[in-house]
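This protein record is not my work; I was only asked to verify it. Take the sequence as given and treat only the tokens as open to question. I have pasted the whole thing underneath without changing anything:
***
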Amino acid sequence: MPHTLIIVSFILITFIILTWLIPAGEFDRNLFNGRQVVVPGTYHHVAPKPQGLMELFTAPIKGMMSASQIIALVLLIGGAFGIVTKTGAINAGLAGVLATTRKNPAIKRFIIPIIMFLFSLAGASFGMAEEVMVFILITIPLAIAMGYDSLTGVAMPFIGAASGFAGAFSNPFTIGIAQGISEIPIFSGWEYRIVIWLVLMTAAILFVMFYARRIEKNPERSLVYEIDRKRDLTAYHSAEDLALTLKRKIVLVIFFVSIIMLIVGVNVWDWYINEIAGLFLAMALLTALVYRLNSNIAIGAFLEGARDMMTAAFVIGLTRGMLIIATDGKIIDTILAGIAGTMGHFPKVVSVQMMFVFQGFMNFFVPSGSGQAALTMPLMAPLADLIGITRQTAVLAFQLGDGLFTNIFPTSGVTMGVLAIANIPYDKWVRFMIPLSVIFLILGCLLLIPPVLLFIYH
């Protein structure tokens, strides 16, 4: 399988070709709560603007400039974790967890569901997405040390948060924007969304636990068996590194306090990238001071940690470049208008399923929940009125379509960034995710039926 950067570059070229094949067009847009949203019924053809070689070679720098905050966050988080890792505190803490599970094996069974529940709750409440990258560096060694593999380590936070994001009951970045555009009360309909969240979270936890149990019984069945064998896990075999000294205990306290502040800051104080980056820089500095790391050693650890994130940084920049190509080539609105125009000719139950699949399809081109809401909901809300379903149901179709498929699309900067950090090839991830994606697709279709048939979801 080609390197992740080659895959992303190939898709970028494909987007260039599509700008020559798909007619250019666009909707008029109005400003709504600080966002440009489309005006229904205003689609019109515009002069073609096919992208060429110059746009191909400038897309990476444009993408990096557009995603500069996220790229900087990834590099700074990598550097901060480099310092924390240098102290050996994380390895010692994981060793303590493993020692506890050996003494009481029953505890081990609850680690995966507890971790996934917490991340799913974060995704459902405040829309955790990019923040997952912070935890990948912890859950991978934990999963491997417990006898699982790195896919399990990625799945615990990433799939956990994704199941919550798709079944969110108060996500301001998706539900808040979509309901605002649809002119229905913000966060209304939360009762049924909690049911959806519980269903999706349970499905995700059972899937990951089934996979982990299979790998535990036979490690060679892991899709990343050879990759994990080459990972540097020597720290787990050193008695000195495993000693949970007082200084390491203090470092772990600093780390967990930082995580709590992250959750509270994002959920209560409206923190975003700048504040999160500042939090982890403060954590790194305090860790170095408490552990009394030599300044040169601390800087070296920081740079080494940031260097490990370089691939993720380039991948995020290139995926953002794809969206720039599609936007500059004027093809996104054409795709949107073409598909949306066919939905009103089918029965209501079929139409809402088409809305769901359509939103999942659009997520390939616009892998941003808030961006997709601003693009599609001005059309989907009045379309719901025409075909006889509630606008609340249209928002739900958007929410499920946006949340259930983004973790498998290579155009998602978060997905590809997580895989780059974890050093997991994209083809391995797709093979792992296909069964769960099918399960999510079936559940999404089924969960959309009651609101349509009963017409009670307003």
About this structure: The chain has one domain: 4-38+53-454. The radius of gyration is 23 Å.
